[in-house]
Amino acid sequence: MRAVKILGERQLVVQDWPDPVPEGNEVVVKIHAASICGSDLHALYRTKEEIPFIPGHEGAGEVVAVDQSTMVRVGDRVMTLAFHTCGVCEWCRQGELSLCRNMKDVLGFGRNGVHAEFVLIPDRCLLPLPDQVSYEAGATLLDPIGTPFHALKRMKANAGHTIVVFGLGPMGLGSVALASFLGARVIGVDPIPFRRDHALRIGASLVLDPGEVDVLQALQEATQGIGPEMALECSGTAQALGQALDAVRQHGAVSIIGENPEALIKPSGHFNRKEITLCGSTCFPLGDYEGILRFIERGLDPTVIITHRFGIEDAAEAYSLFDQGATGKVLLTPHGSS
Hints:
The chain is α/β, with parallel strands linked by helices. 28% of the residues lie in helices and 25% in strands. The protein is built from eleven helices and 18 strands. The strands form four sheets. Strands 3, 4, 5, 9, 10, 17 and 18 form a seven-stranded mixed sheet that branches. The radius of gyration is 20 Å and the shape is globular.
């Protein structure tokens, strides 16, 4: 099969890899759509080392070979989950896969992932994809749709809220799509014109360029001096998180979605004085999946965040373009668009 090989220093090739063969509860999925995630960039593509495994953890496709699995059958339409968990700890039993105490491995990080024509994957790392949900939509559900869905659910967001999204990459665009679908007023913040323009197309009512305006002042003006109720930090920068905490009103809520090891937090100013609620979100617990599918049934189109599609042989161009930032979600379609 053909699949991505990352060579290091932002270089990759598409080469032949051994065809996967199912064994035990592992099955082979033919990948029809696979997304490139920001974590693929900063943890793999931008590093100096050659990566010995196939990247990619956001995918959707069709089961084409099984061995002893009793959970899926040949022909099943599925989306992939990133975490290969123990399945028995208290977090796994609650469907909180990202919190597993005995994580075995992560798809696309140490274990061959979905930036390939086929992937070998444990059957419990798959969720059924309804016929009415396209493979392209399925490839967005794990991270850029599922993560903000979980965040907005935890924050109890509704149509009466003004919600600010800091960072309008795929996670931010997914946040815009979901929050606007709820009926909320959505304001986006990003320095890249392409992403600001796309946010307006999919539901944002206002976008701000942090290089051109005072974001906090603009948010005050947009909310009659009160501040927005909620903010989602999707850029992964300490400055944006600090602005999100500064911007929300008393009893506001902020969710951290972007990965970042640092923070600008004022414990007294943000929490004692304003009583802000701060939470995080990574993918989604399994109990949220039915809710995500109901949103789609009622009209949410996850594919609005996709701006570019490439065949597997053009993966180097896809990664390079995504790395430059002027995109939404970038998709690989190893067997043609679907």
